[in-house]
Design a protein that fits this description.
elongated, 9 helices, mainly alpha, 77% helix
Length: 253
């Protein structure tokens, strides 16, 4: 699990709930019609902007925001250098059966074992990278759209509540519920957008960039191994993928 995502999510909602309890009870902030307008309404609008398949895929992709962190580039380089050493010493077939947790690298190594040509490897893995980035981009766009729509639905709920209140000024009992809809829908919209949708969208976009860079690193390393390159210079080839502060440790390893 991504600790930062979990900590941020529970921390944000926890602080909001703490502030609510400090001034009353949670029941005072519960309003069924308001939730229907903001949550249900915003989901319907997002579906209107996209397709059901895109929306469901976005929910699946959102799991990456909560999943474990991606491998660091130096970890991938160490593994690739190890594979290059094995392949140069015992041949590509010796890479078969290696324990590889990264699915992209596992596929790439499998292509080496099968004797695929470098152009086939490049075309196949490049297409995989582009497809991955497209899925992540669509997922991030769905949540970004949701974050845009939720406050707008909250404003619609506010207008609905105000209209109900002004239309029943002669009935004091109806003013309170109408005012609750007016105020709570604005709050619901702000919470859904700023504590859930927009952060997930940004997290998915960031993880997509990192995962894409890792896959490009792996592709470079695999092509180097396929050509029978010297493992001693593989680190120098891939070191540009590593942040400058961590390069000394990698070179001196």
């Amino acid at each position: 699990m991504d600790i930062a995502t979990i900590l941020g999510l529970f921390g944000a909602f926890g602080l909001i709930i703490y502030a609510m309890l400090d001034g009353g009870t949670l029941a005072a902030y519960s309003n069924g019609p308001g939730l229907m307008i903001v949550v249900g309404g915003s989901i319907m609008v997002v579906l209107l902007r996209s397709s059901l398949e895109e929306f469901l895929n976005a929910i699946k992709v959102a799991g990456k925001a909560f999943g474990k962190g991606l491998e660091k580039p130096d970890e991938l380089i160490f593994q690739l250098v190890e594979f290059a050493t094995v392949a140069r010493k015992d041949g590509m077939i010796a890479l078969e059966g290696q324990e590889i947790s990264n699915r992209f690298m596992d596929k790439a190594v499998g292509m080496l074992v099968d004797g695929a040509e470098d152009d086939v490897i490049t075309k196949t893995l490049t297409q995989d990278i582009e497809s991955m980035r497209l899925r992540h981009k669509q997922g991030a766009a769905i949540f970004s759209s949701w974050g845009e729509v939720a406050p707008a639905m909250g404003m619609i709920g506010t207008l609905v509540g105000l209209i109900q209140m002004l239309g029943n000024m002669d009935d004091p009992k109806s003013i309170g519920p109408a005012m609750a809809v007016a105020l709570l829908t604005t709050m619901y919209g702000a919470i859904v957008a700023n504590c859930l949708c927009i952060p997930i969208s940004q997290k998915l976009a960031n993880r997509s960039e990192v995962e894409g860079a890792n896959c490009e690193l792996i592709l470079e390393g695999i092509l180097f191994i396929q050509k029978g390159g010297n493992p001693r210079i593989l680190t120098d080839l891939l070191i540009s993928f590593v942040p400058p502060k961590e390069r000394d440790r990698l070179v001196n390893a």
